[in-house]
């Protein structure tokens, strides 16, 4: 469907789909997890005897430190200038990595490693080298592994770029959010275009093969015109991937967002027009829509994975790695092992104390039931591949999709009428190009753990 027609149809139906919706980096989603799953459960899951030494691992390291607080931010971060905190963090992280390695019965190499935060480049270049060595001494990286990092251009130096390349990082993701000076002032993040462009250029010169920029729409003082200028500047930098997130007004998580005046936030129609403008500009500039909030150049791995149906999703976003166990290190990090999720303590002192006591710092988690496992497959297949095949369902679960999930298929009928999804007579689903933009809403019909609207508790941010 050509971009202008897609945008015109989206504009007509979007208000009906602008509601709170999970991002489905997991199923069940994190609010469902409880402390009934603790450190003993994680250690037992790590020690599963059936583990295949050749089964790859994916590693995530959470570095929680930042120099100053961006007022939109809902991440788990510690604002500090104290040089002692990162040193202590590195010691504890090494202990955590070693404890998790010791719990595994066999050595397993990693095909993916990602550092997020916080700001990983809050660490000095030498501290980054030390952290990388701690992780890879325990979990060697496979040849050709994907090694990526999130950086803040305001604190990332040439020496960081060189140290990261030396370690083997090849993908770099930068927070931008918006280049408009008034928006930057409101969100307490002054980051000139030149700083971002220079880092992108320096990273490419140093050998990084992929630069990703993160944008947010819905921030205070944003307008269609101001965001048009931001998009111009972003396209001039020509990143390989662009993530376009909706600003999540989640004041129950990020209290500093209460400082935003409602009147300064774009109203829903403006927010919608900014989103539509961004989609139109990015598609016209040759990026492909990968799913949820991600756009990539056609030659990018994610675009290729979308085309050959190997695209998957985990806590780090879209990935080309399917069925891989994920081990998370650092405060608030999440591990995904077979049929379990485990999350570590979010607060730095609690994480230090837990690692000192047990080696692992599990605060909560969830072991998936057979029904959870089935629904996880339904939701992730729908989101990543844009379809559900009755034949694949039968091969995997031994039943008929149209019978086993008749209620969900019925619930999708209005979306089918809106042109978001096609429903086959055998229950097979095909998400349309329009539906891919709203796939969180489609996936929600398969979610058995959604809080009831009667709860009145805000849990998820809005889908649009
Ligand atoms: S947006 Fe990034 S740099 Fe800003 S406070 Fe949050 S984690 Fe730190």
3D architecture notes:
The longest helix is centred in the N-terminal third of the chain and has 20 residues, at 84-103. The protein has helices at 3-17, 39-46, 84-103, 125-138, 158-167, 181-187, 193-206, 224-237, 268-284, 301-307, 348-358, 370-385, 390-397, 401-404, 406-411, 413-417, 433-436, 439-443; strands at 57-63, 65-66, 78-79, 110-117, 141-151, 171-177, 210-217, 241-246, 288-291, 294-296, 312-314, 317-319, 325-329, 334-337, 340-344, 362-367, 387-388, 421-423, 429-431. The chain has 2 domains: 1-28 and 369-451, Arc Repressor Mutant, subunit A (Orthogonal Bundle); 34-329, pyruvate-formate lyase- activating enzyme (Alpha-Beta Horseshoe). Strand 7 (210-217), helix 8 and strand 8 (241-246) form a beta-alpha-beta unit. The model has no long low-confidence stretch (mean pLDDT 91). It is built from 18 helices and 19 strands. Helix 4 packs parallel to helix 5, helix 5 (158-167) packs parallel to helix 7 (193-206) and helix 8 (224-237) runs parallel beside helix 9. 40% of the residues lie in helices and 20% in strands. The protein binds iron/sulfur cluster (SF4). The site of iron/sulfur cluster has 11 residues, from loops.
